[in-house]
Specification:
Largest sheet: 5 strands, antiparallel
Strand order of the largest sheet: 1-2-3-5-4
Shape: globular
Helix content: 10-25%
Order of helices and strands: EEEHEEEHHEEEE
Number of helices: 3
Distance between the termini: 33 Å
């Protein structure tokens, strides 16, 4: 069942035949046609497979193309945990959030960011659509296509104070929430 679509893929709910769990499958069509998009997909896959935190989406599986032949591999299918909605839909749904809901959501966002930053990862695409929620108000941060690994610098590193490695990153980020 189709549940959403982003700039780089279609997301569907599916049933895992091996264990009966309902999962999310993100189809990235023609994943190898554009070098920049391919790098983003690879970055997201590598990060998602290493994350092990309840507030950060993790990769369960990567599905092979039908027949399993590498020559037929044009689309990539990423399998993750399925969430009911995202924060954008909740905000615009008209349902009032209590102070307790808002505090719990913020606490989970901060936990996710603390985990990422401790690992040296900067998300760079924080927005309500990338904050997944389920009915119990459990949250997971998703979409790591723009994320970057930026390990902590020693305080005595050469260069301009305060610039660090951040000066090497793209200044323009496409997402409107950042602009």
């Amino acid at each position: 069942k189709k549940i959403g679509q982003g700039a780089y893929g279609l997301i569907c709910a599916a049933t895992d035949r091996a264990n009966g769990d309902t999962v999310a499958v993100k189809k990235i069509a023609n994943a190898f046609e554009d070098a920049i998009d391919c790098k983003r997909m690879l970055r997201e896959m590598r990060l998602l497979q290493h994350f092990k935190h309840e507030n950060v989406l993790c990769l369960k599986d990567i599905m092979m193309p039908n027949g399993g032949r590498i020559q037929d591999w044009k689309d990539v299918y990423l399998v993750t945990r399925l969430f009911d909605t995202n924060l954008h839909r909740v905000i615009y749904s008209g349902h009032a959030l209590t102070d307790a809901h808002i505090q719990y959501i913020l606490w989970q966002i901060f936990r996710a960011l603390r985990y990422l930053h401790a690992a040296g990862v900067v998300h760079r695409d924080m927005k309500p659509t990338n904050l997944l929620l389920n009915r119990d108000c459990e949250l997971a941060l998703a979409d790591f296509g723009l994320a970057r690994y930026m390990p902590q610098e020693p305080e005595d590193a050469p260069g301009k104070p305060g610039e660090g490695r951040a000066g090497l990153l793209t200044k323009y980020v496409v997402t409107r929430w950042y602009r």
